[in-house]
Amino acid sequence: MSESADSLQALQERIMELEIKASYTEDLLEQLNMTIYRQQEQIGALINELRELKRQTPDGGAGGPRNLRDELPPHY
């Protein structure tokens, strides 16, 4: 093989390696996007659940000062 044929072969191999890396990168990006999407859905559900819990509390979720003795179990 001549020097230009070797050079062409090396260039083709390099292009193939870059195409493979680009393909893996695209797959990883898609996986990360799906992970972010699912996490955003979970965050939204948790926010809604927190709102519902605050709505159910007698004081409307206002976190006023509390006496920790009121929270002791009855056996104390």
| Rg over alpha carbons | 30 Å
Percent in helix: over 70%
Distance between the termini: 90 Å
> What is the count of helical runs?
1
Largest sheet: none
| Large-scale geometry | rod-shaped
Q: Kindly give the count of domains.
A: 1
Q: How does the helix and strand content classify structurally?
A: mainly alpha
Total beta strands: 0
Instruction: Determine the strand fraction and express it as a percent band.
Output: under 5%
What is the chain-wise order of helices and strands?
A: H
How confident is the prediction overall: mean pLDDT?
A: 88
Unreliable spans are none
Describe the 3D structure:
This is SlyX family protein. By secondary structure, the chain is mostly helical. The protein has one domain. The chain is 71% helix and 0% strand. The N and C termini lie far apart (90 Å). The model has no long low-confidence stretch (mean pLDDT 88).
Brief overview, please?
This protein has one helix at residues 3-56.
Keywords, separated by commas or semicolons:
single chain, mainly alpha, 76 residues, SlyX
Set out the fold topology.
Layout: H1 3-56
Region (Disordered): 54-76
Protein name: SlyX family protein
InterPro entries: SlyX
